[in-house]
Design goal:
77 residues, alpha+beta
Length: 77
């Protein structure tokens, strides 16, 4: 998780976005990254939406999704 947060902290300085991290016994770990009002219809554009019972796997999947988004839309990370 610490590696992911460091990576996100570097990226968010260049590309504005929001991060939500959740945990509960019912829904396990969740990571959501989105850009407010950037979808075609003016709603929030969801970049990452991951949920898993394994914390490390959840953050690893979130980092892969974020990197893929950055490669496809921002030319890299």
């Amino acid at each position: 998780m610490a590696d992911f947060l460091r990576f996100f902290d570097d990226i968010v300085k260049r590309v504005p976005m929001h991060l939500e991290i959740t945990y509960s016994k019912v829904t396990d770990w969740g990571v959501r990254i989105y850009r407010k009002g950037c979808a075609v219809d003016g709603s929030d554009l969801e970049i990452v939406g991951v949920q898993d019972c394994d914390m490390e796997l959840c953050f690893a999947e979130a980092q892969v999704q974020l990197k893929n988004y950055l490669l496809n839309t921002e030319g890299g990370y």
